[in-house]
Amino acid sequence: MTDTSPLTTGGEIGYLRIATEEAYGPPELFDLYRKLLETTDDIGFRSLMGHYLTSDAERPRFVRDRLQDAGEKRLSEMDAAGVDHAVLALTSPGTQVLADDDAREIATITNDRIAEATATYPARFSGLAAVGFGDVPAAVKELDRAVSSLGLKGLICNSHIKGHYLDEARFFPLLEALESLGVPLYLHPNTPNNDMIKPLYEAGLDGAIFGFGLETAMHLLRMITAGVFDRFPRLKVVVGHLGEALPYWLYRLDYMHAGQVKANRYEAIKPLELKISEYFRRNIWLTTSGMPWAPTIMYAREVVGADRVMYAMDYPYEYVPDEVRMQDALPLEPAELKQFYQDIAIEVFGLDEAVLTGG
C-alpha cells in the first residue's frame, strides 16, 4: 500500500532531505532566450526553449513560472514535498547558448540572485555558480568571486558549449580552479548539438526522454577517456539521473577501452591511470534527479558505491512528491537513508550542517 501520509521537513524522520539538482533562472535570461529564438539555428535550443517559453500546456507554464522563483512559492512546494534544502543552479541550457558578453552578464546576475536567496534562507537554499564558458579567463574570475565572496558551492555546466566539451585544453584553467577551490562541477544535461541531434529530434527523443542523457553521458566519457581526471585527480564531478545510464555500461566500457588502448586504434584514446569504472568511485558522484525507481538506485549504489549516490528532485521540471515517498521507502537502514538524503550532499557540496539544522 502506498504511503499517503504528509511529507514533513525538519528531520523528525532521522534525516534532512537535501535536493541537489534544482533549477533556477532569472527573468533576464528568458528575455535573452526569447530574442535568440527569433534567429538561432540551434535545433536543440529551439526544441527545448521554444517549448518551455511559448507553450500554453500545463507543464511548461508551471516550469517557467517556478524557475524564476527563489522564495516563498518554491519554499512552499519544498515543504509540501518534505524537502528541507535545495541546491539551486542555473537551468539548462544556461549561458552556453549565449554570446560571450551576454553569458558573462547572466552569470553575474544569476550568482548574485542565488547568493541573495541563500543569505535570506540559509537553512533552505545553497547554490552553484554560473559562468560564461566562452571566455575562460573571465569564467575563472567569476567562479572565484562566486565561491570565495558569495559562498556558492560549486559550478553548474549545462553540458556542451556550442558543441565543445570540457575535455578541451582551453577549459583546463576552469577545471584547475575548481580543483583548487575544492568545489564540485555539476555536469547537467543539455540538448545535443546540431551534429548529433537530427535523428533524435526527428523521433521526438532529443530532450529529457533520451537525448539529454545521451549527450551528457558522452560529455562525461570524453572527460574520462581524454585523461581529465588524471590531470586533475582531485576534481569532483556530480552528474544527475543516476549517471545518465553509464553505471549500467561500466563493465563494457572498461573492457572496450582496454581493447582500444591495446589496438592503438584512435589517436584520442590513450592509456589511463585507472579503469573508467574506477573514476566513478574516485571522482564522480551521482544524483537521483528524475530517477526515483528503487531498482536503478540500488543498482547504482552497488556498482559505484553507496557513498556516491545522493538524492535530487529535479524541480521544477519534475515535481512529484510521491517520488520522495518512493525514495523514503528504499530498502535501506535509517543510517543509510541519512547518508543518501543528507550526509553525502553535505560532504560533496561543503554545506554547513549547523546552518541546515538550525544548530
Highlighted features:
359 residues, alpha/beta, TIM Barrel, 17 helices
Provide the fold topology.
Layout: E1 18-24, H1 27-37, H2 43-54, H3 58-67, H4 72-81, E2 85-90, H5 100-120, E3 125-127, H6 136-149, E4 155-157, H7 172-181, E5 185-187, H8 194-202, H9 211-225, H10 228-231, E6 237-239, H11 241-244, H12 246-263, H13 276-282, E7 284-287, H14 294-304, E8 309-310, H15 321-328, H16 334-349, H17 353-357
Parallel strand pairs: 1-2, 2-3, 4-5, 5-6, 6-7, 7-8
Helix pairs in contact: 1-2, 2-3, 5-6, 6-7
Domain Amidohydrolase-related: 75-351
Pfam family, one: Amidohydro_2
GO molecular function: carboxy-lyase activity; hydrolase activity
Account of the protein in words:
The protein has helices at 27-37, 43-54, 58-67, 72-81, 100-120, 136-149, 172-181, 194-202, 211-225, 228-231, 241-244, 246-263, 276-282, 294-304, 321-328, 334-349, 353-357; strands at residues 18-24, 85-90, 125-127, 155-157, 185-187, 237-239, 284-287, 309-310. With 359 residues, the protein is α/β, with parallel strands linked by helices. It has one domain: TIM Barrel, CATH 3.20.20.140. The strands form two sheets. A five-stranded parallel beta sheet has the order 4-5-6-7-8. The protein has a three-stranded parallel beta sheet with strand order 1-2-3. It is globular, with a radius of gyration of 19 Å. This is Amidohydrolase. InterPro entries: ACMSD, Amidohydro-rel, Metal_Hydrolase.
